[in-house]
Write a structure and sequence with these properties.
Layout: H1 4-66
């Protein structure tokens, strides 16, 4: 005679493993999408860095000319 609790636990464990597998696949897909977004945003980051440096240089030169 088989243990009904063991059978029920086996079914539940199988469901847990299946859901975990789906979750892992989804997380991997999410990571892939995030990598694509980061790659696509690289030029925007470069432009933002350049604009920030330009603003700092302008601010520095304005402060330097005030002293004269």
């Amino acid at each position: 005679m088989e243990n009904p609790h063991a059978e029920r636990q086996a079914v539940l464990l199988e469901r847990i493993l299946k859901n975990t597998s789906k979750c892992t696949e989804t997380i991997l897909e999410l990571n892939h999408c995030l990598e694509e977004i980061l790659r696509a945003n690289t030029p925007v980051k470069t432009a933002a860095d350049l604009a920030t440096k330009y603003r700092k240089n302008v601010q520095y030169n304005l402060e330097a000319t005030k002293g004269n």
